[in-house]
Amino acid sequence: MRYEKSCGAVIFRKADVWNVLLIRHTRGRHISFPKGHVEPGETESQTAEREILEETGVRVRVDRRFRAENRYNIRPDTQKLVVIFAALTDQEEITPQPEEIAEAFWLPVEEAAEQLTYERDRRIMRDAFEHIQKYHRA
Known about the structure:
Blueprint: E1 2-14, E2 18-25, E3 31-32, E4 35-37, H1 44-56, E5 61-75, E6 78-88, E7 101-108, H2 109-115, H3 119-135
Parallel strand pairs: 1-6
Antiparallel strand pairs: 1-2, 1-4, 2-3, 2-7, 5-6
Helix pairs in contact: 2-3
């Protein structure tokens, strides 16, 4: 069995209401959160911050107190671990990386759940939002 590891975050921005940054991947076309592979010597949170910046141009503050894991097989011989943090930003402008990201957009939290492709992502987003509301009053 082979193993892959990626890290990313559910990114929140407070405007009139709390918004979440979602991306639609060029491959697979699913809607999820920015994430990517860990590079040698990086911590999980460093990977998340770097990948988010590379994929969306958005600088974030990762809150390492919230950490969710998602495991699944991407091929019969390969298991993937995705670590998702909660993160905050004040930045509204998004610059999607065209090689990987077909579209990136902000949505109010209530609407974002409807757009996410996978139920596990909806669950992680809800848990991350509860954490943000508890620890980051805006």
